[in-house]
Amino acid sequence: MKPLFKLKPNLNNIQKKGIYYILNEQRKIKKFKPWLGDMFSFAYDKIMTKSVFPKKFGGDIKRHFEILKKQLQNTHNKAILELGTGSGNAVYFLNSDNHYSGIDISTGLLRRAVKRLQKFGFQNADCFVVSADDLPFADKQFDIVMCHLSLNFFPDIHKVLCEIQRVMLAGATIYCSIPVPEREGSKSTIHGTLYSEIEYKELFQKYGMVFESLPDQNGNLLYFKASY
């Protein structure tokens, strides 16, 4: 079975149990540094609901899904890429008639995502074990890119933005949510690299996108979109 979207030329891949893996020059599956999410993938959703959202974000996961659903409720039959798919929670705010590709470096989480996408009737969906700074997709294919609660974990956000810019169609939009240090919320430590709202605006503008903060409030999370 071929992926939904065209891949870069001469890029070899293999599918196992609904998940696509990229092969290296020796035609072996490309490996990524182990992530704790693999070890705790079975409890990921519970941890996000009971710990991460209330203790680290000072927010509520149900409110999070409501905000995202409001943004995307009229989105149908679009080519959508999600960076940091996790366990497939996009099913709670994305219509199932869209064409969806999700990426993550956690195989354990993607296994859960594949099952969840199938359960919620996503007929055109696939998932890739790849990193956001080296996307396997050919240029200019996606109407919408989503990245929720993941931007702070990418080691090189500039590489990620270059890749996003490369795969987006003209007029495409990226929707993001991310904790920012200046917003009130929990004082619990948030891992990764945190940028302020102003810094995110400057970063996205640098890559030719029109940045727009959204008014929704949910703890220390910033919701924004950027159009290309």
In short:
By secondary structure, this protein is α/β, with parallel strands linked by helices. The protein has six helices and nine strands.
Structural notes for this entry:
By secondary structure, the chain is α/β, with parallel strands linked by helices. It has a single domain, classed as Vaccinia Virus protein VP39 (Rossmann fold, 3-Layer(aba) Sandwich), CATH 3.40.50.150. Helix content is 28%, strand content 24%. The chain is built from six helices and nine strands, in the order E-E-H-H-H-E-E-H-E-E-H-E-H-E-E. It has a nine-stranded mixed beta sheet, with helices on both faces. A hairpin with a 2-residue loop joins strand 1 and strand 2 (19-22). The longest helix is centred in the first third of the chain and has 14 residues, at 44-57. The relative contact order is 0.17. The mean pLDDT is 94.
Shape: globular
The CATH homology group name: Vaccinia Virus protein VP39
Chain-averaged pLDDT? 94
Biggest sheet strand order reads 1-2-5-4-3-6-7-9-8
Rg over C-alpha atoms, rounded to the nearest angstrom = 17 Å
Assigned CATH class? Alpha Beta
How are the SSEs placed, and which strands pair?
Blueprint: E1 13-16, E2 19-22, H1 36-39, H2 44-57, H3 61-72, E3 79-83, E4 99-104, H4 107-119, E5 125-129, E6 142-148, H5 157-167, E7 168-179, H6 197-206, E8 210-213, E9 221-227
Parallel strand pairs: 2-5, 3-4, 3-6, 4-5, 6-7
Antiparallel strand pairs: 1-2, 7-9, 8-9
